[in-house]
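Writing this down once: the sequence line spells out the residues, with the fold written below as integer tokens. This is how one looks:
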Amino acid sequence: MITIPESTYLGMPLEFWFTGPLGIPFHIWTVTMTITGLIVGSFLNVVIHRMPIGMSVVRPGSHCPKCQTAIPLRQNLPILSWLLLRGKCAHCATSISPRYIAVEALTGAVFLGTWLYFGRENPGLAWSLCLLFAGFIAATFIDVEHLIIPDEITLGGIVVGFLLSVAVPALQGVVTLPDAIRASGLGIVVGGGVVYAVLRLGKVLFGRERVTIPQGTPVVFHESGVVLPDGEIPYEDVFYRKSDAVIAEASRVELSDRCFSNARVRLELMRTPPVLRIGDERFEAADQPWMSLEAGEVVLPREAMGFGDVKFMAAIGAFLGWQATVFSLFASAVIGSLVAVLLIALGRQRWTGRLGYGPYIALAAVLWVFAGRRIVEQWLGLPMGA
């Protein structure tokens, strides 16, 4: 270990310039982490666009979704290319969503802030948290747009979080490998279990939700979910109990091989076998992979959270431990309430039903990483052990 004399250069301690992983100056690592964040943000844009619709995030390469023209490297530089092209495709001039530059800038800023906060004390911890936060960014933007969090992020996060906890026990606030394994495993169980309990309790307390459908707008049921005017809802976020059913008084119903008029529709996917009833007729739902109906409203089983949130919280537990999941559960409720109050104050109360819960969980987990233990100990007066 090199001992640095107590002196300064350009107003900064020499330690700032010379101490860093692999003997590389800390400020070089700072620049590198920022650039890495921008590049990761560019990749996250691909994930956000492609993963929810089942496209590979690897092939084909970057291309304009409108004209399908491949985007060369010189036009694919994070932030800079969007600014130089004024937010348009160089080939067909189609507008490129500001989301792309926002994700890149946010990811770069997150990587920079995380490195400055944790990098000097524990570079491995900083790198691991950057990976976690990248997952949060992708999950947040996907959940906002599609109201889902893909399994690649949640289930993959559980595996990666456990492995990184083994490699970097500081993620769990411990030192030894056995403690890290125990903390991560407990985090997975508590994270998933607590949120699942809240989910099931919400099903009992809240019952059903009536969704008004604009006249002439079809409601489409396919193999994995139901498509409503506000977006698609996976079946796993609707059906939990055997008594759960989607109900509609439909003026018209279309199946793949027949049509009905003025019929009551009842879909029960938790039965054995799953049942679809249309008027007086009964079908096995597995034999009807597609259905479209027109109705004034559709009655859905309503839940406090979706099952994707359960897996998401388990992934957070895998990275950060059980204390983080409990904190995130309660803090996300406070954050969600504040957002709802703000939207109501702005006259946008209808938006409250269009936002997934994942972004609130992610923000609460970030709050835990930077200040959670301090909040619990100083504000609530509760001691926090590792």
Remarks:
- Residues 15-121 form one domain.
- The chain has three domains: 15-121, 147-204+306-386, 208-301.
- The first helix runs from residue 14 to 18.
- The first strand starts at residue 8 and ends at 9.
